[in-house]
Design a protein that fits this description.
With 160 residues, the chain is an all-alpha fold. Helix content is 96%, strand content 0%. The chain has one domain. Keywords: Autophagy, Coiled coil.
């Protein structure tokens, strides 16, 4: 037997002894893989728990923010309603004021026309009154002149 044969025989013996235990080695390798996967899952679970905790905290903050925004929205809706009512009231008031202004303007135009007519009539009457006064003064002057002539005539006849 050569040294090669001896080595091969030794290896065969070793293989026969270790062959029944090869399942144990394979199981150890599998167990090692499972342990490593278990550790990875533990790390992932811890990460998921932290993420879940953060998500719950964020959810609480979001709920608080939603409530706050709802209150603010309600307040803004009330303000919009109040301002809309105010705008409607002011629009109606503006409409009535415009109607009043139109009526006043119509009345001013009417009174202006009446004033112009009365001014024309006053001017006409003043002219007519002036003419009448002038005619009356002329008549009174004429009567006074006649009376003076008559008095002068009478005086001149009486002194004679």
């Amino acid at each position: 037997m050569s040294w090669r044969d001896q080595i091969l025989e030794s290896l065969d013996k070793r293989d026969q002894i270790e062959k029944p235990r090869s399942g144990v080695f394979a199981s150890c390798d599998e167990l090692q893989g499972l342990l490593q996967e278990n550790e990875e899952l533990k790390v992932q679970l811890k990460s998921n728990k932290e993420e879940n905790k953060l998500t719950k905290e964020q959810s609480k903050l979001n709920k608080t923010e939603v409530l706050k925004l709802r209150k603010e929205n309600s307040s803004l809706n009330k303000a919009v309603t109040r301002l809309t009512d105010k705008l409607n009231n002011q629009t109606e008031e503006y409409y009535h004021k415009n109607k009043s202004i139109e009526l006043i303007n119509d009345e001013i135009v009417s009174l202006s026309i009446q004033n112009n007519l009365l001014t024309d009539k006053l001017e006409k009457l003043e002219k007519e009154n002036g003419d009448l006064v002038q005619r009356w003064i002329e008549k009174v002057k004429s009567d006074a002149d006649k009376m003076n002539e008559t008095n002068a005539f009478l005086e001149s006849h009486q002194t004679r």
